[in-house]
Amino acid sequence: MTLTTKHFGIDIPKIGFGTWRLKEETAQMCVAKAIEAGYRMIDTAQAYENEKHVGRGIADAQLPREDLWVTTKVWMSDFNDGDLQASVEKSVERLGTDYCDLILMHWPNADVPLEETLGAMNEVRERGLTRNIGVSNFNSEQLAEAVKLSKAPILTNQVEYHPFINQTPILEAAHALGTSITAYSPLAQGKVFDDKVLKEIGEKYGKSPAQVTVRWFVQQPGVIAIPRSSSPDHLAQNNDIHDFELTPQEMGRITALNAEDQRLINPSWAPDWDKAA
């Protein structure tokens, strides 16, 4: 069962398998196991240095190419026109998938004009190297600018999003622009497992805090989540969320956890993040 969200007429799986920090044979094994467990989106990046093994895992799963959504991201050092196209060619070659379903700009880069990078992104789409384009780690102002400058739709903005961070401004901006939000580190790098609210709700349904969290994402309009695990059992459990539904009250209790507003990923090159009111 593949739950989807539709943007610009395109159906996008609401749950994907993230591969950050998964290396070599572990990445290969986990990707194959994730597809076996029902994931229909695989997310990687040039910076993860695992595209080749992610591609091998995809090949091992032997799923028809059209049944799988493959996302990768271009690193900031390749944002210039010409460099970007060459880097995407290499990514597609490493993945062995003929094309990507989605290519993202991994972070904003003030040193290269956004118009130039988006022009190159649109070109790789026109050449068939990717079906769609998007961004990652953009604040709401940058997202609006990208939407304005791009000929093709900006399909998603991939950002840190979990129950303990308040991402209301970027969620509202994405909804207003018609685009989606993809949540990375959706399990807060394991922090969800110790939360009392998530444990309590999970006990009611016989589910883990991670499963409750993924379900919380699924029930939010226009939001995609890409949990990661190096354990075949855990990654399968994270996608086993189709047999229960959270009540509006439970959704609200989980959302209220964002009062902590804990950001886990904030490198020196990060933009000025939106501040929640």
Compact summary:
By secondary structure, this protein is an alpha/beta fold. It has helices at residues 24-36, 51-61, 83-95, 114-126, 140-149, 168-177, 196-205, 209-218, 232-238, 248-255; strands at 4-7, 10-13, 17-18, 41-43, 69-74, 102-105, 133-136, 154-160, 180-184, 223-225. The protein starts with a strand and ends in a 22-residue tail after the last helix.
Describe this structure in words.
This protein is an alpha/beta fold and 277 residues long. It contains ten helices and ten strands. The strands form two sheets. The protein has an eight-stranded parallel β-sheet with strand order 3-4-5-6-7-8-9-10. A two-stranded antiparallel ribbon has the order 1-2. Helix 6 links the parallel strand 8 and strand 9. Helix 1 packs parallel to helix 2 (51-61). The longest helix is centred in the first third of the chain and has 13 residues, at 24-36. The chain is globular and about 55 Å long.
Name of the level-1 CATH class: Alpha Beta
**Uncertain stretches:** none
Helix count?
Answer: 10
Please count the beta strands (DSSP E, at least 2 residues each): 10
Give the radius of gyration. 18 Å
Give the helix level as a range of percent.
Answer: 25-40%
The percentage of residues in β strands lies in 15-25%
Mean pLDDT over the full residue set: 97
The strands making up the biggest β-sheet line up spatially as: 3-4-5-6-7-8-9-10
Structural class: alpha/beta
- SSE ordering: EEEHEHEHEHEHEHEHHEHH
